[in-house]
Amino acid sequence: MAESPKSKSQGPGSKAVVLRRAALTSQLSTFNYFLGLDLGGTSIKAVAVTASGAKLRQRSVPFVDRDMEWAKKIRALVRAWRRELGEPAGIGLSAPGLAAKDARSIGVMPGRLLGLERLDWTDYLDSPRPIPVLNDAHAALLGEVWRGAARGLRDVMLFTLGTGVGGAAMVDGHLLRGAIGRAGHLGHVTVDWNGPRDDFNTAGSLEHFMGNKYIRERTAGRFASTHELVAAAERGDAEAKVIWERSVRALGCSIGSLINVLDPAAVIIGGGIARAGAALFGPLERAVRHHEWQAGGHQAKILRAELGDYAGAYGSAANALGFNPAKG
Amino acid sequence: MAESPKSKSQGPGSKAVVLRRAALTSQLSTFNYFLGLDLGGTSIKAVAVTASGAKLRQRSVPFVDRDMEWAKKIRALVRAWRRELGEPAGIGLSAPGLAAKDARSIGVMPGRLLGLERLDWTDYLDSPRPIPVLNDAHAALLGEVWRGAARGLRDVMLFTLGTGVGGAAMVDGHLLRGAIGRAGHLGHVTVDWNGPRDDFNTAGSLEHFMGNKYIRERTAGRFASTHELVAAAERGDAEAKVIWERSVRALGCSIGSLINVLDPAAVIIGGGIARAGAALFGPLERAVRHHEWQAGGHQAKILRAELGDYAGAYGSAANALGFNPAKG
Questions:
Q1: H or E segment to which residue B55 belongs
Q2: Which residues in B lie closer than 8 A to residue A290 (C-beta atoms)?
Q3: Which residues of B touch A268 (CB under 8 A)?
Q4: Which residue among A172, A179, A201 places its CB closest to the CB of B155?
Q5: ipTM associated with this complex
Q6: Architecture of domain B149-305
Q7: pLDDT tens digits, residue range B251-266?
């Protein structure tokens, strides 16, 4: 996919020559890198990587969500890297919301990041090649399959446990997008149909039982974060133990259901709550085995995500370079 | 994909010539048909169709599940159609169980249809071309997308409501198979995590609340079939109404969850219980809208399956001719 940038003007003072000179003075392999961008809620993550995934640069840029500051900061970062590294062989971008069918923008993202909906990133970043846009969770999964915990796999579910519970799924090597780009919202499945409906209309959802945004509601105001809850449970607080065990059971039960729907070889767990480590993965392993249909003796692996906050940026780069496990 | 059959022996009495003569005397378009076979629990459904899906023949052959009677009857039927119609341009087959990765057999099918596991259908039916094998629900969905209720769609969920609750899913035009071929077991998702675990280890599953196999358990022995239950509910029996409403709510709630996971444009409902008609589809429509995340105003269509008992046979033929909505 890598190719040299072309310019109509080739004179010694032209933009192309200046760019090329800047690149040649760098010690990096020029014109042969991919730029992955991931727009989060409070920061932008960016990586510059080779086609084989070797990291050349990595940056996190915080922003305040007003006046499209995030967009301007992305543009500034891309300009700076173009100057330093030359024109990338491809740029990919991910962001919250549902990616449009033509993959040039986020089509639906109500409530925050005003200006993101239908912003055409190929135009906005003056890219000579189309910039494919992915939903952030879709990108994180693609990143984990390309260079993270799910390397070499074709059937994978990802859960990101944080404020909410996000997710993404790949089946037979295909990253699931769906009719309007919402496939893989794995946090919005019912475990208790008598429970309250969440922001997505889902009754007693996994997100309700596991997401940080519902922790006060779930704990009668006792805990402000899952981190606090887990710490209390580890100290032996009986009430905290019961609540945390219920959270883990909700996740195990949901994974059990979705194994029947998506048939993964591995389930990747990421997000801030995954930092609970053994306090999560120990009981989760047991809960999954309890609810899992082990057809022909098969057990889905439960793995911790490896790329952390940069999974989406890696996935965006993978998407830009056309990484596709279905063809592998 | 259609091509003429070839034979090393071309003499006037050769098998090829006899076959060809038989075919020429038929009024049907010869050498240009596909044979779709679907092995069920008590009968074999077969269709001979053109590449555009026009039906040339259709047959249902009952069998008793002993001594591989089903296999012998399939072989006899294929022989008869080869004699009458000539060699098909392709044969496809579907059956219960999980299809093997190489698609030449059913890899896992414990408990019944003894002899089905790892039976290589290409060899068994002496086919000059590989016979692709699909799980029966996968085939039914492919059939409905090719020639039934989901024509022209790429994002579809299918539920078959009968003894159990089966299903299949297509996302972005890809029929989901998964790591061991079990993707799309949509009946085995939890709606009530406090409910009993079903045969697949799933707590309080959709199948538990909707499948005929659990109806005695669900109704304290009062009803022997969903048909009886729905008839009683329609006569105004208060207890039957409550039980049936709960079944429909379980289905609506599961569809709501799985819309977030698979993002279908349409949900197809088939199987014997779908014959309940308005008694099912009226309340189901309301239950789905109640639980559905209508992102950007999107509503998934709820449609009744169109191909009935022959969906799997059509899907097997579609699979043999290489029908693939992802490429469309």
A1: strand B55-62
A2: 201
A3: none
A4: A179
A5: 0.91
A6: 2-Layer Sandwich (3.30)
A7: 999 999 999 999 999 9
